[in-house]
Write a structure and sequence with these properties.
Elements (H helix, E strand, L loop, with lengths): L7 H9 L4 H11 L3 H12 L2 H16 L37 H9 L7 H17 L6 H8 L2 H9 L9 H5 L6 H24 L13 H18 L1 H21 L6 H13 L2 H20 L11
Helix pairs in contact: 1-3, 6-7, 6-8, 6-10, 7-13, 8-10, 8-11, 8-12, 11-12, 11-14, 12-13
Amino acid sequence: MTGWHAPESLIARYADGSLPDSDAWSLEKHLESCAACAGRVSGAVRATAAGAVLAQVRGAVLDAAPPVRAKTPVRTKTPVRAKTPAPPTRAKTPVRAKAPLHTPRLLWAAAPAVRGAWLPAVLLVALGAVLLAHVADFSGARPLLLAVAPVVPVAGVALSYGRHADPLHELAASTPSAGLRLVLTRTVLVLAVSLPLLTLAGVVLPASDAPGAAAWLLPGLTLTLAALALGGWLGLRAATAVTGGGWLCAVLAPALAAPGGAVSRQLSDQLSTYVGGAATQGGWAVAAAACAALLAARRTTYDRLERH
């Protein structure tokens, strides 16, 4: 980053050891090419309690090292050669610095989110709902899709991060791009695939008495953010199980307990309560903002997530 220098707050946190590993590695990489910042960091470290110990170690090493004697250069006679005219020099074409290759890095980080079991699961949910409606003539296909759809991106996030999903997880977790940045990269890809596909499937289903096809988007986004926020305490897979399982129990349990033949009707009523209406959607939006704020406040917990 040409022209960028580390701020004093960043250097102070690096010197006292409170800077997260990913940020410390990024700063150390910057110091390799910035002498000004390297000098400032060196001065900040020397000013800490560890600086005195480092000075003592350096002095002991220098005292124990043998003295270096300067060698007298040996002069040799150089034969006189006839001078030849120097060839004309050509103006050097300035070499342009190549732009960093962000695309391969992004593809490498997002790769586990486009393979594995969750992508076929998204297709299965979408196509299954369409087949139930247009082949089996099941009138409750849209309510069933709206009940299951918010859990799909939550499950996709859980299945795209961790040792079970990425054979290079240990290597990825030790890079400066690890932590919350890596989780969010894969989460965005999961949402980019599942949200339009499931919404399109809801559009082609019969309306019945269920809410609109896009009514599940805010609940699905909120549940995903809630799973990420809880992941700092419970771990990502346990957090997704809690949020996704809680949603399914809240929506499906009353419908399954309805008296015979009224399952679809009860499910539609449950969804109208949970996702229908402007006030309810506004509540989901507030909850999503709160989960995002909590996730930002606890972002450093993802630096150590699934390291053990």
